[in-house]
Amino acid sequence: MLVVSGLCEPAHHKRRAPHVDLIKMTISLLEKTASAARTYVCEGLCASVAHAPKNLEEMDMTDHTRRETLALAAAAAGLALAPGFALAQAPAAPAPAAAGPTQAPGFYRQRIGDIIVTAINDGAGARPNLDGMVRNVETAEVARVLSSQFVPAAPFLNPFTTLVVQTGGRLILLDTGLGDNGPPGTGTWMRNFRAAGFDPTQVNTILISHFHGDHIGGIRLRGGEYQFPNAEIVVPEPEWAFWMSDERMNALPEAQRGGFMNARRVFSSIAGNVRRFVPGGEMAPGITSVPTFGHSPGHTGFVIASGNARLLYVGDAITTPSLYMTNPDWSPFFDMDEAAGRATRRRVLDMAATERLQMHVYHAPFPAQGFVTRAGTGFQFVPTPWNSAV
Ligand SMILES: [Zn+2]
Predict the structure, then answer these.
(1) How far, in Å, is the centroid of ligand 1 from the Cα of 178?
(2) What CATH number corresponds to the domain at position 183?
(3) What is the span of the domain harbouring residue 301?
(4) What integer best gives the mean pLDDT of the chain?
(5) Which of 150, 153, 159 has its CA nearest to residue 131?
(6) Which of 109, 219, 341, 348 could form a disulfide with 335 if both were Cys (CB 3.0 to 4.6 A apart)?
């Protein structure tokens, strides 16, 4: 007897099996296996339903969902299935022979009081070496500090993880990732967003921390398509004033205009519909903006709060924890104002350590959430413990 555990749900009885061919193939495989029995028991919510087909025609195909089909296929291949095997983790079709192993979908949920937040990963960019990455420290010292924390340096991976907030019946994005505008290893955001059960047409609001390409790129794809047709886009006024200034852009040599050009690519044709805000006020139920200037002229964080629970979305006020939490006075190459960046980083880290405040750190290892404790002259990142329940 083949027992298929934890795979059924009441709704499956109402649906018609869409993968008859796969079921046929699976049954055929089972019947060719000497040890295979001919009785199939769905030991889930429909434990009373037992199927004992002598051949395919005796099997009520309408009773079998794709989920069961995949379970049978896996069982036929000799795989053990844990109860609660999730459809979202199974491939829709057999992977092409040439495809290598793939990672689980990159999304992670937790509750902040009554608010649900979901971290969505957009992959990682790879730097071949550390040269020039930290402005005010020798490369060898950067390598030593990374090595002491078991962080690979060649290549050095810089991950990107945004946050989705469900509050007051609204779906709100904090930054968008790169879309398809990023380097190899990035561009996984939409797949992970959909795997989490979201659809881009449902997004009501996009709150932007700052205008660097890894935070605004996903608003508009390379081909010109806007990914979130129903979303209001809301940006910090000082970011808009800086990046959309033709005067500032034209004062720079052409080779240094990339960020300005990208801001125009994303925003110019929708400029009339982009809402600008002065950092420091309430943005939505449970979301308040916080000025965290330095990394960029108008860089803004967001506090998500409900009841006694809080989460601070720091954006890039603090980037790689193993470098800039350990040494808050080190200046990442991408900090546009070094002194202001250092002051902001110290202020945020002091507050987070004192108030035991959980943070979402955009460039921290997935799911990019954790706390800090004081350690020497700096701080130590303590990742939020994984919780299998939401
Ligand atoms: Zn960034």
Answers:
(1) 10
(2) 3.60.15.10
(3) 107-383
(4) 81
(5) 153
(6) 341
